[in-house]
Amino acid sequence: MVGIPALESLFAPSLHADAAEGPSSALDIEDAPLAALVDGIESDGHGLVMCMGKGGVGKTTVAAAIAVALARRGHAVHLTTTDPAAHLSETLHGSVAGLTVSRIDPAAAIQEYRAHVMDTKGRSMDDEGRAALAEDLMSPCTDEVAVFRQFSRVVQESRRHFVVMDTAPTGHTLLLLDATGSYHREISRQVGNSLGFVTPLMRLQDPVGTKVILVTLAETTPVLEAEELKADLERAGIHPWAWVINNSIAAAHPRSPFLRARAAHEADQITKVRAMAERVALIPLLPEEPIGEAKLTALTAFTTQRV
Ligand SMILES: Nc1ncnc2c1ncn2[C@@H]1O[C@H](COP(=O)(O)OP(=O)(O)OP(=O)(O)O)[C@@H](O)[C@H]1O
Ligand SMILES: [Mg+2]
Fold it and tell me: pTM of the entire structure?
């Protein structure tokens, strides 16, 4: 809105009439239910699902919805998060049969790791040695090792049942993957080329064991950022299994002219993601926050809500 005539138009009664002729052809967005992704995840009987993406796009919501759907289909599911600021319990809002919830808490992980090292390595040392070791364990790189240990444990667990992981916004997650990569290189160096070892990175790279889901919004910048994350992951040999476009107005098939105009802007981004991704699910922008078992379950129902 630039210039006096434009600003004056804000007061014009005809404002709504203009919007009434909203575009329509771009709005024939094909539904892509999250339920189809759940079917794909379920078919392997176990495995790790990691929801990644930038802040606020719906990672926690998508992770919780998938975990609830798998639990309701009768599977044992562990829903966990590497996000220090996670709010899984707020999203779930109560317990769900078959679903265990936990979080990788950096502070607790560090304490546990320090205690473990003092108990094992420190056991046979004299007081001076133990003091030096304790000081060593205060370094920031200990923190990374500690969080990584818990992360590996969860990755390991996904060989037996479903583990759905909600991650912290992109930057933090890339650090964790870096640690995973360094650990892998260190083990490979120590063990040499002999077969018979599987590092957490190798599990993350295994498309059967791990399914990475990139969550984004149907907007230019979030899609570009998700593309960058995809490139970073691919450099680490990890290929995203699916993309979820969340908060889509187009997917809500709106009738209001104003919302139809907004929905039309999403079409290019949805087309772009569809061209890039092997699998896509679209979640409509909902009138209410999807919190609690019932609303999360509705996210993986086949029909989308119309507004
Ligand atoms: N499709 C949707 N329709 C309406 N509200 C939604 C939808 N998806 C998520 N929300 C709401 O948007 C907010 C952000 O979602 P969520 O917490 O899942 O994002 P996040 O990516 O985990 O965020 P963070 O990066 O902060 O962890 C929450 O309040 C959630 O309930
Ligand atoms: Mg979150």
Answer: 0.85
